[in-house]
Design a protein that fits this description.
4-stranded antiparallel beta sheet; about 280 residues; Umud Fragment, subunit A; 8-stranded antiparallel beta sheet; about 20% strand; single chain
Amino acid sequence: MSEISEAENTKTDNTKIEEKVNDINDETIETENAVSESNDSSESDEKKSKKEKKPKKEKKAKKDKEKDNLDENENISDTDKKKKSKKEEKKNPEDVNIVKDLLWLIVYIGSVILICFLIIKFVGTRSRVDGSSMNPTLHDGDNLWVDKLSYTFGDPKRFDIIIFNPNGNEKITYVKRIIGLPGETVSMDLDGKIYINGQLLNENYALDEPFLPSSIGILSGNNEIVLGDDEYFVLGDNRNNSMDSRRSDPGNVKRDYIIGKVVLRIYPFSKFGFVK
């Protein structure tokens, strides 16, 4: 009996030992499982963190790239600006000023030419006396200013000194004094006295010297000249030495042939002044 009990006790002890070993093994397995689970969870967390970090990194890289692009664009724009500024610097301000000055000079010269043309065409012009037919009022070489504007808005008057193109010849100009007006009848006696419509004309412009009957021209023999509606009878103040309306050339002066009225002697300076 004692031997059986000892064997049973021994068996019981072995069983307990095995159970303890099994328990230890189970705990070890559980620990390993826990460790593996923790490893798995840590791996999954790492993967998740990596996945989460990846788009963040991608976004950051994208932002950095955009920033770099902006910086490059800014650098390009800066370089463009610098190039432009360099180009502008290459355009010397003095050169620009010279171009502007030249343009203004061209405009100024053009304006002066235009104004001079308008003045000469419509306002007035300069003329020079050639000969002695207007002595003693005007003399050879006198420079005159001729007013055109007066006859643009009005008609020539008796005793006006005019310049005109004889028979419309624009290459020649005469300077004479108006004696007869359109529609009037003009005649002259052997003493050089002038009659308008049969009435003696009171005038004292003729040169103070004896009148030569040979100077009466086409008015000789008590001939009378009847002026047309647009014709003027003109004489030189030097009645003995003047080609005027007493000759068939130039004859009576048509209104369209008159250039203007002599108003001013501008040379010689010693005789500068208005002309009557």
